[in-house]
Amino acid sequence: MIYLRSALFNLAFYLSLIIQMIIFSIPYFLMPRKAAWIIPKFWVRTNHWLLAAIVGTTHTVEGLENIPEGGYIIAPKHQSFWDAYGLLPYLDDPFYILKRELTWIPLFGWYVSKMRMVPINRGSREKVMPAVLEQTKRQMDDGRQLIIYPEGTRRPVGAEPAYRYGIARLYADLNVPVMPVAVIAGLFWPRRKFLRYPGNIRVRFLEPIEPGLPPEEFMERLISATETAVDELLIDAVRQNPGLPLPEQARRRYEGLTAKKAVTAEAGP
User: Fold this and answer.
1) Splitting the chain (269 residues) into consecutive groups of 10 residues, what average pLDDT does each group show?
2) N or C end of the chain: smaller count of CB under 10 Å?
3) What gap in Å lies between CA 22 and CA 18, rounded to an integer?
């Protein structure tokens, strides 16, 4: 049954994308840029509904009160394609730094360009970074939110952290808060996998890290806050979904965390 539900959802996901892009193109491109966010966010909410209705996968968002006003960097844990789009309805006016080639895709690229994303030529990163940084600063001055994944790519659930230093550079150069976000989507929408599993994806917006810290201290706080919260969400997810198949790395991480908690409890205060 899980294979059938996964196939139906994947089909519905891409059909929804294509159909909504076609139907909403005229109003999308006629609307003012910021107002036009209603259409991509509606598409995301449609996907949330489809995932819940077909697969039985819901999501819960915690910590919305921690979201600051104005421009800031949002730094989610990246385990799944779900967290590449799933947070958009909870943000005011987000943007990404993305591969320039994505803007060349017919229709999709036009949608992306409308939202003033920041394209980058990955083949000559050092040469273009000053221009990218300048574009990003202008977006921040408009009160927008930069979505950046500190580990750079999707990581398996339970894998050792592999945070890249680039976010520390952006944190220092942009002089804005960074909001860590713990997400456990990879258990229910695994990376590079066809299957989708029922359960509840929990998202936790953590307290922002205010600007001005030395890079090393910033990185330490970012990693500690994010990974501590992700571990908590992992333990809860496994306990609440006893039939959920765990990837090997996630299983080892869960067993290590629960063993550590058991030892701490036995040791007492």
Assistant:
1) 94 95 94 96 97 97 94 95 94 90 85 89 67 87 94 91 92 94 95 92 97 96 97 95 90 90 58
2) C
3) 6
Residue whose C-alpha is closest to residue 204's, from 233, 235, 240: 233
Output the pLDDT for position 8.
97
Reduce the secondary structure of 115-152 to three states and give it as a string.
CCCEEECHHHHHHHHHHHHHHHHHHHHCCCEEECCCCC
Residue 213 is predicted with a pLDDT of 96
Q: Which residue has the tokens 């953590």?
A: 206
Please check whether residue 180 is in contact with residue 226, taking contact to mean a CB–CB distance below 8 angstroms.
yes
Statement: the pTM of the whole predicted model exceeds 0.85: yes
Q: Which of 89, 48, 73 is nearest to 181 (CA)?
A: 73
Helix (H) or strand (E) holding 199: strand 199-205
DSSP codes, 28-74: HHHS-TTGGGHHHHHHHHHHHHHIIIII-EEEEEE-GGGPPSSSEEE
Any idea how long the chain is? 269
> If DSSP codes are grouped into helix, strand and coil, which group holds residue 204?
strand
